[in-house]
Amino acid sequence: MQGFAGKVAVVTGAGSGIGQALAIELARSGASVAISDVNAEGLAVTEERIKAIGAPVKSDRLDVTEREAFELYADAVKAHFGKVNQIYNNAGIAFTGAVEISSYKDIERVMDVDFWGVVNGTKAFLPHLIESGDGHVVNVSSLFGIFAVPGQAAYNAAKFAVRGFTESLRQEMVSGKRPVKVTTVHPGGIKTAIARNATAAEGIDPEAFARVFDKKLASTSPERAAVIILDAVRKNKARVLVGADAKALDILVRLTGSGYQRLFASVIGKIMPGIH
Ligand SMILES: NC(=O)c1ccc[n+]([C@@H]2O[C@H](COP(=O)([O-])OP(=O)(O)OC[C@H]3O[C@@H](n4cnc5c(N)ncnc54)[C@H](O)[C@@H]3O)[C@@H](O)[C@H]2O)c1
């Protein structure tokens, strides 16, 4: 796949899953790539694979919740490559637990990584993207940023927030005539380590969630997801739904309005652990 020759792209959470696949596909498509993660082992694998492609790569440990470090990192990437064109705010975590049994700390942690991590990345890089004259912000929400399900209130809140933040930013860039495109990504179930890396409210077995996710919900490979996302970036799509499940459920929600909640409360409430 071509189309990113000469571009400098930044990918957070690039040590696993969708972020790893995005970084590799960007490198294959001609981009120079700045990759980061808190998972040093996974990041080293991504770095090796990009080097094998022959693309320029800068690899750093970065926790997306650390705002000051993110600002310094943005300047370091700019200094290293001379410019920055694209940021993929991809790093994220999953968490399962009904509101009644989730602690404030649980909910704050999910918001810190999944929402504030995206805000930090967007704000740290936006001046550089504008300066490049050809920028793109790509923020990873979820299908759970389009509808809510029981047991995912914290994750739903973070992913709905990413969607609102990103859709507003896109309009600001248009009305302010800034040279920055903006895309929100809504993956359906992607076969990654997300559920195995997930935590759960006290008393809930996170592995029960992982088993349901791996067996029943994950259907698209991360490599396929990366190709779909980069195609949408190339076409400057406002929103990209990744996977047949995402497309079908988006239609269901639009057709039923708030009615989907009655349906999901009974169906998903039965298969998701940690609800009631
Ligand atoms: N897999 C899916 O089905 C799915 C569906 C919808 C949305 N998403 C979203 O896609 C994104 C990527 O998830 P994935 O499925 O590839 O999961 P993954 O667990 O395979 O990869 C996520 C990566 O993010 C990193 N990470 C976690 N916390 C971090 C932090 N504080 N700072 C920096 N890096 C951090 C992890 O170390 C990991 O390498 C996430 O935002 C996730 O919410 C995934």
From TrEMBL:
Alphabetical UniProt keywords: Oxidoreductase
Keyword Repeat: no
One GO MF term attached to the UniProt entry: oxidoreductase activity
Pfam families: adh_short
Signal peptide interval: none
Gene3D superfamilies (alphabetical): NAD(P)-binding Rossmann-like Domain
Domain Ketoreductase: 7-193
PROSITE patterns in the cross-refs: ADH_SHORT
SMART domains for this protein: PKS_KR
Residue stretches spanning the membrane: none
Family stated for the protein in its record: Belongs to the short-chain dehydrogenases/reductases (SDR) family.
The name this protein goes by in its record: Acetoin dehydrogenase
Protein source organism: Mycolicibacterium sediminis
